[in-house]
Amino acid sequence: MPSRRILLHVCCGPCAIVPAERLLDAGWEVTALFYNPNIHPLTEYLKRREGVREVADRLGFRVIYKDDEYDPQLYFRTVAQREANRCFHCYSLRLERAHAIAKRGRFDAFTSTLLYSKHQKHETIAGLGRDIAGGGDPVFHYEDYRTGWQQGIETSKEWGIYRQQYCGCLYSEFERFRNDLRNVSSS
Ligand code: SF4
């Protein structure tokens, strides 16, 4: 019986390790999709892209890099005027694209490494995936990859995969480092 094909949306190398290992172990034929217009600036995008390439080489799966669709303007237009709920729209942008590519490519299922991160809104991502799939093909494949959180960290360090300091967008970079600004302002 031919193995089932799944499109795995990936956000970065470290987050890809546990989901890809589990899917491969379960017998899925895994193709990854690197589609992330939310990663700023471009130099950061390139570092994460390289991390994904290294993980894919080690685990042996193919990656579709949507570099021609790396468009920060699309991200900013998507979240404009609704920044307080920006993560919902950011997830939606990426999962809808993953679903469309999976459908066009006749994949059996799609999913995302966003389900690995303890820092993301897990239930929101799972609900969006199901809603976007709408009960048709390709189905949204749900697993709680957070149970492998520590394993993913340790493996990414052992392999020397680039580990980012913030989620991706300029807003998250600001939130991560705003204390640096406070510190220089008060000194
Ligand atoms: S914090 Fe992360 S998930 Fe939320 S909008 Fe920014 S890049 Fe997207």
3D architecture notes:
The protein has a five-stranded parallel sheet, sandwiched between helices. It has seven helices and five strands; from the N terminus they run E-H-E-H-E-H-H-E-H-E-H-H. 52% of the residues lie in helices and 11% in strands. The model has no long low-confidence stretch (mean pLDDT 97). It has helices at residues 13-25, 42-59, 72-79, 86-104, 122-133, 149-159, 170-186; strands at residues 5-9, 29-34, 62-65, 109-112, 139-140. The chain has a single domain (5-186), classed as Rossmann fold. With 187 residues, it is of the alpha/beta class. It comes from Oceanidesulfovibrio marinus. Catalyzes the conversion of epoxyqueuosine (oQ) to queuosine (Q), which is a hypermodified base found in the wobble positions of tRNA(Asp), tRNA(Asn), tRNA(His) and tRNA(Tyr). Belongs to the QueH family.
Q: In CATH, what is the class?
A: Alpha Beta
Q: CATH homologous superfamily, by name? A: HUPs
CATH architecture: 3-Layer(aba) Sandwich
Beta-strand content estimate: 5-15%
State the helix count.
7
Query: How would you describe the shape?
Result: globular
Strand order of the largest sheet: 3-2-1-4-5
Helix and strand succession? EHEHEHHEHEHH
What is the tally of beta strands?
5
Radius of gyration (CA) equals: 17 Å
Distance between the termini: 67 Å
Mean pLDDT: 97
Question: Fraction of residues in helices?
Answer: 40-55%
Function: Catalyzes the conversion of epoxyqueuosine (oQ) to queuosine (Q), which is a hypermodified base found in the wobble positions of tRNA(Asp), tRNA(Asn), tRNA(His) and tRNA(Tyr).
Keywords: 4Fe-4S, Disulfide bond, Iron, Iron-sulfur, Metal-binding, Oxidoreductase, Queuosine biosynthesis, Redox-active center, tRNA processing
Family: Belongs to the QueH family.
Pfam family, one: QueH
